[in-house]
Amino acid sequence: MAEGRGEQEFTRFVQQTRPALRRIAFALSDDWHEADDLVQRTLMTIFLRWRELDRRDTMAPYARRVMTRLLISDRRSSRWTRKSSSACRRRPAPPATRTSP
């Protein structure tokens, strides 16, 4: 019974906050498809922890914080991958050194 009530509360939370989260996600990413993915991942993250979260009245700011951290994490990992792989390709081979016998 309590599980059903928790799911109802989460559904109500999603209905109330999803439009605002989507607008914020678009402002952060400048791409509607990425914004939709970001909102979905944010809501999934919150849903997985929903039973553990105590202060349901402050969930909107928490959701924005989760979303921002997910985006930063994505950007860091893609930037690191992009820079490290391109740096490897562009790095010239070191000059051969001759050692005298």
Q: Which regions are unreliable across 5 or more consecutive residues at pLDDT < 50?
A: none
- Percent of residues in helical segments? over 70%
Quaternary state, please? single chain
Tell me the structural class: mainly alpha
Distance linking N and C termini: 85 Å
Q: If you compute it from the alpha carbons, what radius of gyration comes out, rounded to the nearest whole angstrom?
A: 22 Å
So what's the overall shape?
elongated
- The number of helical elements comes to 3
How many β-strand runs? 0
* Main sheet properties: none
In terms of DSSP E residues, the strand content is under 5%
- Strand and helix order: HHH
Average pLDDT metric: 82
How is this structure best described in words?
There is one protein chain. The protein is mainly α and 101 residues long. Helices cover 77% and strands 0% of the residues. The chain contains three helices and no strands. Helix 2 (32-49) crosses helix 3 (59-90). The longest helix has 32 residues, at 59-90. The protein is elongated. The termini are far apart. The mean pLDDT is 82.
Topology:
Blueprint: H1 2-29, H2 32-49, H3 59-90
Helix pairs in contact: 1-2, 1-3, 2-3
Quick rundown:
This protein is mainly alpha-helical. The protein is 77% helix and 0% strand. The protein is built from three helices and no strands.
